[in-house]
Amino acid sequence: MAVLLCNKCSYLREAPDEYIGKKVKCPVCKDSVLIHNTVSFIKNVITKYKNLNKKYCQLKGSENTGLEELDNSHMGLDEGIDLHNTLAMTDQTQFKPIMDWFDKKKILLDVDTKTLDTQGFFDEVAVMLGNDYGLLKNVNNRIKKTQQKGYGSVTLTISNYSQKEIKALTTYCKALYDYSFVAKYYYNKQEKRIHLTLQKTASIVNFFNGEWLEWFVFMKLLSAFYEKKIPFSALRSFKVHFPNEDKHEIDVFFLINNKIPLFIECKSGEFRSTIEKYHKLRKRMGIDKQNFTMLVLDLSDEQAKGLTSMYDITFVNENNFVDYFLTLL
Questions:
Q1: Residue 277 is part of a domain; what is its CATH number?
Q2: β partners of residue 315
Q3: Which structural domain, as residue segments, surrounds residue 64?
Q4: Whole-number Å distance between alpha carbons of 227 and 239
Q5: Which residues pair with 2 in a beta bridge?
């Protein structure tokens, strides 16, 4: 058996014997890593530890030279942390239990820690949109369709909305401008029209095209588990590699208490053609039906229940997924 230990980020996992002596890219930080023979590697570690421990004991006047038990406890997020403005989720110690869980199933992970960085504004805008999606979805859909057609601006007529709704719409659109999701924002109060000049940056286009839903689901569950002090590890938008070289991208994944997996596939558009694909993926991962979910935007509660009874995965929507998982746990 072989072992991979990254000197840069300390990522550790087993590797196939045929890779011994070869250099590969670390799945986490992408740094070059040498694959070692496990037995030889452990012997070297123990030898170095004994030498260091012997010197320490001589200095302390102690005769204890035995190996001490390693601390494998997982440190949770600090209390009072601002979940919407932190690098804490990018720390490998946060998501290592998930990597270990997949390792036991001989599944490799390719993690991009940028998808866990909440210092930007993707998470804030996603939560604003998701929390009031019934009202704001028209804004999102107009922006998405306009971007897909290659046009650069959107005009929204909001004269048919109530004063309360108009305030919410203008507040959201102003936030899009403040956070640079649109290049320009102008509200004509007399005509009750909102004018938006769109950004063409790929990350912004992808956000409105559906990536916002991943951020929304991730942040809502993150906040719920954090507030209720439920021990968890979390990842979003990462790839898994099966032993037969099959690859899949996973939208949102939580591991509760280092043992309960929560899989969430987010669908903002057509989903029916992918049901069979995720049915097979659930079985390959060995995740119970109740823990393996497909979150479909605009799906009614009745539809979610009906589809769940028909297929071997669980369906939820943007309104009930947090309650579902909290009740499940």
A1: 3.40.1350.10
A2: 294
A3: 1-70
A4: 28
A5: 15, 37
